[in-house]
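Fold it.
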Amino acid sequence: MALWCIWLIAALVIYIVQIAAVFLMEHRRPAQLTAWLLLAFVFPVLGFIAYILLGKDFTKRRRIERFKQEAVRYASQISEKVSGPADMGNEQLKGQEKLYAMLTGLVPFPVTRNNEALVLTNGHDTFEAILEQLEQASHHIHMDYYTIRDDDIGKRFLQVLTRKAREGVEVRLVYDGIGSLRLSESYIDELRQAGVRTSCFLPPRVALLDRKLNYRNHRKIVVVDGKVGFVGGINIGDEYIGKDPKLGFWRDTHLRLKGDSVYYLQELFMNDWAFAAKEELDGSVYMPRHLCEGKERVLIVSSKPGQHDHKIIEVMFAAITAANTRIYITTPYFIPDPSLIMGLRTAALSGVDVRLIIPGKADSRLVLLATLSYIQDMLEAGVRVYRYEKGFVHAKVMIVDQMLGMVGTANVDMRSLYSNFELNAVLFDEGTINRLEADFIEDLRQSRELEHKAFMNRPKRQKAAEALLRMLSPLL
């Protein structure tokens, strides 16, 4: 055998062993491991470079310890102010004691009992509600966003934030380094010149050097004076009011919260600020006692990269497996992990009315094809799947029986559930759940239901593309 051939074989063996060792030693989920291996073997050089840049496991001992410290940093300050955990022993929740015991054991935050929740449907109502609240700020404004754009809506926020900062209100803004990549330097400079404190969460250059480019802050948090908070699917940009010429009407859901739950939104913001700006804030200054007399129960659930921080998917799975009558889900990206697939299929096969709304048109063709690759599994089990046709649906909503509704930033996809910093609010008030259900029913009227037989007859080329993207879906 020629010497060059021996060297080539030896190099190939070493390459394979190195890749396998790197992947296997990081204890990755099987689906994610398979996707990275497939990418590396099909595109040896590009795949390995992509892994080096994007595939680093976020879980490191010192980082875990820091996040643990952040999780308890404000616990004593909050416990002095909240009215105590909610009593879950009423008729609405009867028979689900195990579910709520698990929720309270799983999530570090308690189910709070003194809250008011307002469902905000679509961008216009959300922006008007947030801007109105910002105008009323007297002490501080804290904002944490994945995407901020320098467009008409972005300029409205710029005007309000700079004016409030000049009036003496403390204004802090965290924005994600990739989600807000196109945000102009002049926009940030104008904020800073007015006195707004800004910090970029994992800037591309830093994230690239530290191999954390794949981990993004997808949260959307607004806290005003420590008493009013907002969370949901809506970033700051004109597309959320239907100005995207490709997508048109934008269907989304956001929440305004008052009461005890705002303390936990504030804690998450301060943790993100400490991570991004390297500055720890005094919780006693930014968590004043509120005067909210509402009696709604709210649980704040957050997740972040790391082997033990996937709380949102665990709450989703627990709620799905506890369902008796119905599960309604709206998500722009449906790339579930095996546990959610099994949970939804089992629920549907046992007679639960499971319905899923996904986009009819998409902002990403690749992600849409990956989404469609999971639909056959759903249809075969009796899940009713709808494609929204009025525009683009971006809401992240789950409704289970009359027990709970969930609204937040996390999509039902593996990127949101395992690789991003996310935030959801779990709502237990019957009136709020009814409002979410009414919105869901209206969305069904604007959607087309997929029939199993017709879906199976889609073009073979599309099926092949879906199959390939399904293998890569943990990376999308």
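The chain is about 45% helix and 20% strand.
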